[in-house]
Every structure is written in structure tokens, then in C-alpha cells.
């Protein structure tokens, strides 16, 4: 049983998120665990015991902003996906599916134990977000059916690490939106979840033989990028009320040649159904808490709407370590933040990790 992936293997897995097979049929076709999305009181009690903690028991705020509602919808949408992912991973290990077998029984037992804690904590996040929506008279987000492009334990952990990086950046955007909407209590609560996600990310990184802490200032993101990325893991047509989430879905951006720790040209592919490549486009990178970096995009080939293009990844002059979000933009900026990049995005997010 291999526990570690090289940086190249991890990064090369990202463009295959849609095409690669799963070890077994997605668990979501059988329903989420523990009665989710609406567990009974007895089921909730078991979830809290497994999570080593409870749902917050303080009174909810009396009002919420429109931005706050959008935050809660995106958070619920994401957390339901994470519940399905970790539940399937636990099932694959428990059933000794090929690629998920451990040679050391003690390591297997401990890994399962810790994953079950993570699963229960993600379940509470999903329940809390949907309960808040119900409290404010908004229909809760319903789960989809999911597909996970992993073949074994290593690729599962690599994928978990990648989407957790995106979640950590997205929750920064959620906190800012809560703050702008004066949803102070919710901003504090989501900040506690950022800490929890960071703790589990440290474990995922150690499993890949990496330093537990990735960056001094974690890469930020935008809700629209997360909304698009999560849909790569859903079976089309199976999300009952996804259209009630008022966020944008971008064209898929594939990173064909993931970079190493050096400046080099990267190859990307994406769909351009509106013939936007008839005009100049740019590759914009979001890394750490720095201003987005913009590089000219050079189209190499076009086959119908499928575009292959190249752009410089300026690693060395910008210390672009850790997690980077790439986006094809219809403007060269300058961009002040990730949300401004999202407003001009044609295709994305492309997910890159260097370290």
C-alpha cells in the first residue's frame, strides 16, 4: 500500500476529474449516510458522538443578508459533496476494495477511525448550513448523485487535499461576504470551520509526505469558482435544486501540463462556444493573498469549440508555492481580488499545487 504521491502525480490527477473511473459505484446513488440530509434526533446524536462535538446550540441570528443566504447555499452544496466523498472512501477501505487495502492492520484501523471523525464533522457542517437556511425560510440544498475520479487511497487523499485547499480559500470569501452583509455571528462560526478544515488538510499533506502547513497566507478564492469545481463531481441532472443557487458556472479549465517549482509555459484546454478566442484572452493566477497575476494566453489549436492554449506560469518571480487557481479571463485587469477575477472569467478554475 502506497501512502504518498509525488507532486507531479498529484497535479496530473486534477485535469482528469471528469474522465477517470471510481473504484465502485458512487455511494450517493444509495443515499448519504446517517439519515442525511435530514437525520433523526437519534441519528444526529450518533453523528455528534462520532464528530467529538455538537452543533452550536446558541440562538440563530434574527436576520440575514442576501449575501449570507448565498453563502449558506454554497456551503451546504459543498458539504453534502464532501460527506458523499468521505463516506465512499471509508466504504472502500472497509470493504478492502483493490487500491484501498492496507498491509498494516494498525494503520488501517487508525486511518478508518480518523476518517470517520472527519466524515461526522462534515455531516455537522452540512446539517448546520441547511438548518440555517430553513430557519430563514429558505429551502435547504438537496444532495446530488456524485462521481469521484479516484482509483486508490493515494489518489483519494490527493483529491481530498486539492478540494480542501479550494474550500479553505472559498470560506475566506464567505467570511468577507458575511462581514459585508453584517452577518457577524455567522462570520465567527465559519471562521471556526476554517480552522477545522485546516487541521484535516495538515493530515492530508502529511500522508503525501509534505509539510503539514502549506503557506504563510493561504490562497484565497471566490464562491463561483467553488460552485463550478464541485459540479465536476456531480452526475448531471441529479442535483434537485442547484438552480436555486445564484452563482455562475464557468467552462471547465484543464491543466494539461502541471508545473514544477519553476517558471515555465503550461498547456491548458477549455471549451469556447462563444468564439471568445477571436479576441485576446489571458491566463490569470490567484496565489496566496497576493494580487492576481495576469499572463497573455496563446491559442495553440482549436477543434470546434475545444481550445488548446499556452501561458507562462511565472513561479520564480512570484514564489508561487502551494495552491494556485488558474482562470481564463476576458480582461487583463488589473484585478484587485479573486472576486474581480471571477467576474471576467471564461473558463476555470484550473487547480495547481506546487510544493
Task: Give structural notes.
This protein is an alpha+beta fold. It has two domains: 238 residues, no CATH class; 102 residues, Immunoglobulin-like (Sandwich), CATH 2.60.40.10. The protein is 42% helix and 15% strand. It is built from nine helices and eight strands. The strands form two sheets. The chain has a four-stranded antiparallel sheet with strand order 1-2-6-5, with no helix packed on it. It has a four-stranded antiparallel sheet with strand order 4-3-7-8. α3 packs antiparallel against α4. The chain is globular and about 60 Å long. 44% of the residues are buried. The N terminus is likely disordered.
Key features of this structure:
single chain, 355 residues, alpha+beta, Immunoglobulin-like, 2 domains, 4-stranded antiparallel beta sheet, 9 helices, 42% helix, 15% strand, globular, disordered N terminus
Number of domains: 2
Order of helices and strands: HHHHHHHEEEEEEHEHE
- Mean of residue pLDDT? 91
SS-based structural class? alpha+beta
Cα Rg: 20 Å
Identify the strand order in the major beta sheet: 1-2-6-5
End-to-end CA span: 23 Å
Number of helices: 9
Residue windows where pLDDT falls under 50 for at least 5 positions: 1-30
Number of strands: 8
In percent, how helical is the residue content? Answer: 40-55%
Gross morphology is globular
Query: What percent of residues are in strands?
Result: 5-15%
Biggest sheet statistics: 4 strands, antiparallel
Amino acid at each position: 500500500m502506497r501512502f504518498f504521491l509525488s507532486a507531479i502525480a498529484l497535479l496530473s490527477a486534477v485535469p482528469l476529474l471528469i474522465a477517470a473511473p471510481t473504484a465502485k459505484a458512487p455511494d450517493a446513488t444509495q443515499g448519504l449516510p446517517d439519515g442525511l440530509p435530514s437525520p433523526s434526533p437519534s441519528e444526529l446524536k450518533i453523528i455528534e458522538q462520532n464528530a467529538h462535538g455538537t452543533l452550536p446550540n446558541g440562538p440563530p441570528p434574527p436576520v440575514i443578508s442576501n449575501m449570507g443566504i448565498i453563502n449558506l447555499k454554497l456551503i451546504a452544496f459543498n458539504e453534502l459533496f464532501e460527506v458523499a466523498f468521505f463516506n465512499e472512501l471509508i466504504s472502500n477501505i472497509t470493504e478492502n476494495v483493490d487500491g484501498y487495502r492496507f498491509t498494516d492492520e494498525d494503520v488501517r484501523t487508525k486511518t478508518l477511525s480518523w476518517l470517520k471523525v472527519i466524515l461526522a464533522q462534515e455531516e455537522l457542517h452540512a446539517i448546520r448550513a441547511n438548518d440555517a437556511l430553513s430557519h430563514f425560510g429558505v429551502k435547504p440544498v438537496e444532495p446530488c448523485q456524485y462521481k469521484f475520479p479516484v482509483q486508490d487511497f493515494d489518489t483519494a487523499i490527493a483529491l481530498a487535499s486539492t478540494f480542501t485547499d479550494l474550500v479553505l480559500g472559498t470560506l475566506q470569501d464567505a467570511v468577507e461576504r458575511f462581514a459585508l452583509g453584517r452577518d457577524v455571528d455567522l462570520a465567527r462560526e465559519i471562521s471556526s470551520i476554517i480552522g477545522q478544515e485546516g487541521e484535516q488538510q495538515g493530515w492530508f499533506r502529511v500522508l503525501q509526505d509534505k509539510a503539514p502547513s502549506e503557506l504563510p497566507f493561504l490562497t484565497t478564492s471566490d464562491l463561483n469558482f467553488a460552485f463550478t469545481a464541485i459540479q465536476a463531481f456531480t452526475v448531471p441532472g441529479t442535483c434537485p435544486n442547484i438552480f436555486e443557487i445564484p452563482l455562475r458556472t464557468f467552462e471547465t479549465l484543464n491543466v494539461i501540463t502541471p508545473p514544477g517549482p519553476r517558471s515555465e509555459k503550461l498547456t491548458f484546454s477549455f471549451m469556447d462556444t462563444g468564439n471568445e478566442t477571436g479576441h485576446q484572452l489571458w491566463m490569470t493566477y490567484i496565489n496566496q493573498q497576493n494580487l492576481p497575476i495576469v499572463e497573455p494566453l496563446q491559442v495553440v489549436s482549436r477543434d470546434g469549440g475545444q481550445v488548446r492554449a499556452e501561458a507562462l506560469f511565472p513561479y520564480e518571480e512570484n514564489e508561487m508555492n502551494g495552491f494556485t487557481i488558474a482562470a481564463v479571463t476576458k480582461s487583463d485587469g488589473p484585478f484587485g481580488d479573486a472576486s474581480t477575477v471571477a467576474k471576467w472569467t471564461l473558463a476555470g478554475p484550473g487547480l495547481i499545487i506546487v510544493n
